[in-house]
DNA sequence: CCGTATCCCTTATGATACTG
DNA sequence: CAGTATCATAAGGGATACGG
């Protein structure tokens, strides 16, 4: 395999690539939320629903099962009435917290810049459609 | 605002929350790929298409515009024929490289564990449907 | 070469109602 | 309480063809 240039991320393009898998998992709209909410400790289903309050039970279940399948959290059923099910991060899941935190911190440090950029972009967009075409590039 | 418990990630649930924005951006199937591919230096549209070879021009354009809008990369049009357009990470975009790298490294270290967990889970699944219902919980 | 325009399909997500 | 089932909608992504 080629070892220079962009090759070291070459396998990122492979659908089976580790990074792709992880980015797919954290790319999930709810997965990262759940993981970060569970950082504090185990929660039961209803507690998760309240915390991540916009999610429907169906979607929440899907996310939880996916995360459980990947070994990132455990699902513990207590044999009692009313039923109680706890979700808790596994050690593996906990190790994801750190990179996720790095991302959160990046986010908090740079959102303002991103938002400013968006405003600029959108303004230029708006101006562009008012201007006649055939205009010299930027 | 409450300062204990899960409150510090409380705003993670807010759709306007910085983290949500960032996770939405990197959650994009192609955005992180593009960013990481551009880590090496500027590339033109066709080069990006070749590198991220499965993506259609439409989708690639969408991703690039979104990233440009967020100030993560620049789009430079050269006034020549045939046309040439270069895409390059901005300093802001470059700062994303590090947290992304952390995630990649996590991925590479832990995929095997995740895959193993999946196999386990799926096996148990298969076994469960063969077993009669009303079985004592795990 | 660098896109845009269309059409189409799969998947994700949501609302709602119901069961163990 | 903790889900499952069903239906409906929308968003994402892809194939293809064409324009500047």
From TrEMBL, chains A, B:
<dbReference type="InterPro" id="IPR002577">
    <property type="entry name" value="HTH_HxlR"/>
</dbReference>
<protein>
    <submittedName>
        <fullName>Transcriptional regulator</fullName>
    </submittedName>
</protein>
<keyword id="KW-0805">Transcription regulation</keyword>
<feature type="domain" description="HTH hxlR-type">
    <location>
        <begin position="17"/>
        <end position="115"/>
    </location>
</feature>
<dbReference type="InterPro" id="IPR036388">
    <property type="entry name" value="WH-like_DNA-bd_sf"/>
</dbReference>
<dbReference type="Pfam" id="PF01638">
    <property type="entry name" value="HxlR"/>
</dbReference>
<keyword id="KW-0804">Transcription</keyword>
<keyword id="KW-0238">DNA-binding</keyword>
<dbReference type="GO" id="GO:0003677">
    <property type="term" value="F:DNA binding"/>
</dbReference>
<dbReference type="InterPro" id="IPR036390">
    <property type="entry name" value="WH_DNA-bd_sf"/>
</dbReference>
